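so i finally got all the pieces together for this one. its two components total, 853 residues if u count the protein bits. some of the lines might not be protein, just check the labels. i wanna see the whole assembly predicted at once instead of chain by chain like last time, that was a mess tbh
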Amino acid sequence: MDMFLYMDVDSGLHRLDPRTKLILMFMSFTIAVMFMNIIILGSLLILVTVYGFSGRILSNLKRIRIVLMMITLFSLLIWTIARASDDKVFIFSLEGLFYGIMIALKTNAMIISGMVFLSTTKIEEIAEGLVKFRVPYRGAFAFATAIRLVPMIVATSYTIIQAQKSRGLDLDTGNILQKTRKYLPLMIPTFISVIRSTNIFSMALESKGFGYSNKRTNYLKLTMGAGDYFMLFLGALVLAAAIFIKVNPDIYRDFVRQFPWSEFSAGYYNWSI
Amino acid sequence: MDETTLKQSETAPEIAIEVNDLTFSYKADLENTAIEQINLSVPRGQFVVIMGPSGAGKSTLASSLNGLIPGFLKGRYRGEVLINGQKVKGREVSEMAREVGLVFQDFEAQLFSTNVNLEIAFGPENFHIERDEIVRRINKVLKTVKLEGFEKRQPATLSGGQKQRLAIGSVLASYPDIICMDEPTTDLDPIGKLGIFGIARELHESSKFTLLIVEHETEEALHADRLIIMKDGRILKDGNPDQILRDVSFTDEVGIMSLHIPSYFNRVLRINQENLPLDPEAGASMFQEKELVFSEEKYSEIIKREDDRDTSYGDTILTVKNLVHVYPNGNKAVDKISFSVREREFMAVLGHNGSGKTTLVKHFNALLAPTEGDVIIYGKNTRDHSIFEIGKDIGYVFQNPDHQIFADTVFDEVAFSPKIRGIGKDEIKERVHEALKAVDLVGYEEHDPFSLSKGERQRVAVASILSARPKIIVLDEPTTGLDYREQKKMMELIKQLNAMGHTIIMITHTMWVVSEYAHRVAVIRDGGIMMDDRTRNVFAEEDRLRESYLRTPHIVSLSNQVGKTVLSLDEMIACTGGSD
């Protein structure tokens, strides 16, 4: 089983400097957090997906398709019911449904953006990129290791689930509560295995000289090239445009007036279809 | 005075490792010493193998060389360890990495980089080596550990043997002059083992390195300069491997596997210890020289017994028809395999890491569904039945007992399977007792499984499968990580289960286990069956086995040279020693 999220493809996106990709990711996060508008967030989602497509890593999204689907489903369902609205049909409301769409777009855009970053950037590059941003090496390494740990835990729990299924544990039937109760005891062997291997892992780290000094050379050569500056420029342009409409109430109000169903942020909120 | 100091500073000290009166107890268990009064001096360039049963203190000794003890693993520490003349205590592990490279058994946990190059670069990076020099070192190390062409591969996609070689390489890149490997081959198949020993010998020949390997395989210890036998935290013997290993009564007593050849000649000829041959070739010439005779009559008795056993098997209970399995990533792990198993057979599945044997047996209890073809267990096609249903007839013991165990007590652990199947309280009690009796753990009901030894945990895992009373038991490497005595005990248990009527299918890397216990062997190679026959017939074809990098145990090799294929020491003695 493939344990890493990183996909070893030779694409322009892969060759970008990790710093560029990190900044672009944070730019997309900023836009996602800044707006509560279906059209803008929808465009962001498309933009992020195209960005991922250029790195040929969208197949990696298959691995988290359940997460993406669940988020979409739950936000649609919960907000349709939970959102306060003047015209409710029974407990459902159309406004809630649209609000749910907005939340789903926002969350999925951020998750996909993060996924694109992790799928195109080696763990070592992430660590080194952070170091270049003046994060201390140990901290950067710890962060990168945490990312590495996730697939390891998944793989271990997968084996454990198989082992328990073989003993007759029926994990496939029952409602969510019953299923949760069946899965809970499996946490014990999972944690014990993970703790054991992280212990060996840390011994192996030190045995290879980790922490010998604060100065460290790097085999990976990080250089900002023309492509990096171009992508940063594009990103900055999009972000600037986003900020521009956000800080100009008149422009934004005009825009919202055309699509009142898409907007949910305070001050502009005037929902109707 | 001046002259001597000058000499010392010119050349590295002649003694690479010096251990004086080292005693250590782990913090968690201060009452018991893990090692006691260890004295050891290893000159530069020596190749030392350390052997001993579980709990002998081998790993503790290894960890004290690079400062993991007492820096990382704390406890009570007395005595001293000197590496290249300098005290280890008080120095950082990371600093020691320049002098001592330590390789661990668990190759999964010690590799963490995205590709092979970065893995090797990690050590030198820490020591602030210039990038150009790192590139040079990577190339050199790749050559040494024979991983050229794998530069860009993710460590996770390498085979077990390649992973362990990479682990060695990643340590070598910091250019330590002492390499210590703590059971590096335990989890490896025979080909992987061979690779590691090959590297060890090459490193040794370059004479610069002092090499210390903790090992289980007695046959491999023969190649070392020096053999140290430890037990209960002490060094029992320290000397020439040939001499120590000829002393069969000693190795028997310590609980490490005695070499077959000296054991055999010791029993049939009763000659002086120093004249005992060590390997099959020397054995064969002594066999001729002493005019020993291989009795055809006795041999046909053995064959007759085997024929009888074959006819005594029950009906066909497991059928595999044209089985193909393709993983979602397109990797074809099993390619058109067909065979059948009869009730009460004892079948071993052999093959290198990644040959598809685990994928194959996971089909037997419906953990995996066939991509093409069918698997039929007691008339039930695994396609149409759930794991739960198939699981009534077939139990699967996973390789690592820690992936199975989660209860607080041994009783609950073993009771889990029957409980989940809705069996009444009294019968559960009865079944748990029966299962614990079979694995010889009666009286351990209230113990916490995690406080038991690896061998005991493995037996708890078997008991927890037995309590469901499956007719077929599948075991994935039941002896890995156990010492010789524990392995023997485990195998006697499985043999007994087979005699009680269970059909056994076992994946293993351990050749003597196959030879002495399995009735039938299937050799899997690249997803297909290469050989499938009675163990005796398979082991007669040493050359073909060697193609799959499998080697027969010494006694089998000897018998193949002087007569017919025997499978154990006892058979050999029965066939040749009965004349006088």
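Chain B touches chain A through 72 residues (CB under 8 Å).
Residues 259-292+552-580 of chain B form one domain.
anyway lmk what u think
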